[in-house]
Amino acid sequence: MRKTLSQKQIEFGRMVAKLILYAEAIGIPIKVTEWNRDQREQTRLYDSGKSRTLSSQHQIGLAVDIAIIRKGHYITAWAEYRPLGRFWGLLGGTWGGNWQDFNDPFHFQYK
Fold first, then answer.
1. What integer pLDDT is reported at residue 35 of this predicted model?
2. Is the pLDDT of residue 50 over 90?
């Protein structure tokens, strides 16, 4: 049986909660910086080159962007996100850090 969008969103929320708890357990301080995004914001990101699509999983509540924050500063080094990306994969999600054409280590989305 196919899952409804609502069922996927509930499952995704549980996955994000597990990721947050995992990050805390291994000493990586994280913050969800974006969960939902409207079409205007998606178009702005696309036009600025920060997104490669006009139709993002953020728009249907099935993607989050996460930032590691240490001493009040956002960490942008890809390697710092790798443990989170690995764990996310074990949960069955897709990590933007694994994308070859547009590497986005801050992006975690539903399957």
1. 86
2. no
CA 37 to chain centroid: 12
Question: In terms of Cα–Cα distance, which of 29, 99, 20, 14 is closest to 61?
Answer: 14
- The pLDDT, as a whole number, for residue 51 is 85
Q: How far apart are CA 33 and CA 40, in angstroms?
A: 17
Enumerate domains of the chain plus CATH numbers.
5-109 (3.30.1380.10)
d(CA 11, CA 17): 10
How far is it, in rounded angstroms, from Cα 109 to Cα 36? 12
| Exposure class string for 58-89: b at 16+ Cβ within 10 A, else e | bbebbbbbbbbeeeeeebeeeeebeebbebbe
